[in-house]
Predict the structure.
Amino acid sequence: MGIPRCDHLLIAAAALLDKAGPAAVTLRDVGRAVGVSHNAPYRHFASKQDLLASLIARELRDVCKEAEALERLPSPQTLILTFARWALAYPERFRLMIFHWPDGAHADLCEARCRWQAMFIRAIEIQQAAALLPTGDPERLSCLIRSTALGAIQHYLATGGKDTPPAEVIGDLFGYLARGAQRAPPTNAALVAELSGAVD
């Protein structure tokens, strides 16, 4: 069984995006790259925005699948490192995802985003239960980890690879978090005593 036409169009769109950024992706050029009429892509995508949203959704699903292939229940480290490797391999796709996020009303994209976020939060909850990550709101911790990773990736790409590699930043972050998880949180009495000592 061959690859569905829709997938051919998405592959062609990804190739155009990788080569010259989002401006280079038009439905007409995608159709030309696949060898179909300029109207054919409109049977699958209502607009360029729809095409780009489907492309990002496909990319997110692929990142999830890759992480699941590495671990049956991927850890937060595996998930975020898999995302970082993808981002460095396909910087234009990453930039599209981060800086030109297509319309969130696109059902396919919302589903892929929800799957990624649910996997990540569940992975955090599992490690919190095992005392490998600090306790607290897993959604907030997820946001902290993802934001740090995104910043590390952006800095690395912006400096042409001269900044600290994202994998090292992510490794450092999880090291700090693991050490924090192994320390008992201070009680209110201990905090009051510490603050009183600082005032004296």
